[in-house]
């Protein structure tokens, strides 16, 4: 299936590894030019090569602290200038520390909002003038399955990321007339550095909890992100889509 992304310009944040990299690879494979950013310059350089190898479009990369709104705005503006506009924004951030309500104070919650909610707003606001100007655009905001099913061990994520969902829903009516769709992806357990890290979980244990019997691959996630960015998804907006192998089984 041709997703209609050949020649489009896509921005993918927090793309030096994991889900962001999976999304960037998928978009590049569809012929889009892609600009990626992350905090770690060394990992970003490797990711740049990976994304460039996935497709024939141009690739740009920049070291960006997503908690700094001015840095985010500069990245968006420079990407648009270098690549000729913006058609797709995949707004993604790093994760937060795992823990329960007993583990955190008010400052921890404030930090979670600053690192996992506010960057989405900064990225989207910076990209919107370009998307509106085109009369066509896709905004994909990446959260977590915790926005649908709160988890006792991941309370910071479940609290801060809910604001992203609220922000996305507020954008739908505003951007519809401009031909811009806004959707939210809520990934569950995937084979990423965050899952395997010192504050993360054991992939085998997590996989045993998932109805499909495994954790996801970042390329699974990337495929869905690319679809939401496509021509074929033109009538999908305001959706919250779980990418969790069936792990979330709430009825509503």
Please, could you describe this protein's structure?
This protein has 252 residues and is α/β, with parallel strands linked by helices. It has a single domain (9-243), classed as NAD(P)-binding Rossmann-like Domain (Rossmann fold), CATH 3.40.50. Helices cover 44% and strands 15% of the residues. The protein has 10 helices and 7 strands. It has a 7-stranded parallel beta sheet with strand order 3-2-1-4-5-6-7, with helices on both faces. Helix 1 packs parallel to helix 2, helix 1 crosses helix 10 and helix 3 (69-83) packs parallel to helix 5. The protein is globular. 48% of the residues are buried.
Could you give the distance between the termini? 31 Å
CATH H-level name... which superfamily?
A: NAD(P)-binding Rossmann-like Domain
Oligomeric organization of the protein chains: single chain
Order of helices and strands: EHEHEHEHHEHHEHHHE
The general outline is: globular
Strand ordering within the main sheet: 3-2-1-4-5-6-7
Based on secondary structure, the structural category is: alpha/beta
User: How many strands?
Assistant: 7
């Amino acid at each position: 299936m041709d997703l209609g992304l050949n020649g489009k310009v896509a921005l993918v944040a927090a793309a030096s590894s994991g889900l962001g990299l999976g999304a960037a690879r998928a978009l590049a494979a569809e012929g889009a030019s892609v600009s990626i950013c992350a905090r770690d310059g060394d990992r970003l350089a490797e990711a740049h090569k990976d994304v460039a190898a996935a497709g024939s479009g141009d690739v740009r990369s920049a070291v960006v602290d997503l908690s700094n709104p001015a840095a985010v705005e500069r990245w968006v503006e420079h990407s648009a200038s270098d690549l000729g506009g913006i058609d797709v924004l995949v707004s993604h951030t790093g994760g937060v520390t795992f823990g329960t309500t007993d583990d955190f104070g008010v400052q921890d919650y404030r930090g979670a909002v600053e690192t996992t909610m506010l960057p989405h707003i900064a990225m989207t606001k910076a990209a919107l003038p370009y998307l509106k100007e085109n009369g066509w655009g896709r905004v994909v905001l990446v959260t977590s399955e915790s926005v649908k099913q709160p988890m006792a061990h991941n309370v910071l994520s479940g609290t801060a990321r809910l604001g992203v969902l609220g922000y996305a829903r507020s954008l739908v009516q505003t951007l519809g007339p401009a031909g811009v769709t806004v959707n939210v992806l809520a990934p569950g357990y995937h084979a990423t550095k965050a899952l395997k890290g010192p504050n993360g979980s054991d992939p085998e244990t997590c996989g045993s909890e998932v109805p499909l019997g495994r954790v996801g691959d970042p390329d699974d996630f990337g495929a869905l992100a690319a679809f939401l960015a496509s021509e074929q998804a033109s009538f999908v907006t305001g959706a919250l889509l779980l990418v969790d192998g069936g792990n979330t089984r709430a009825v509503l």
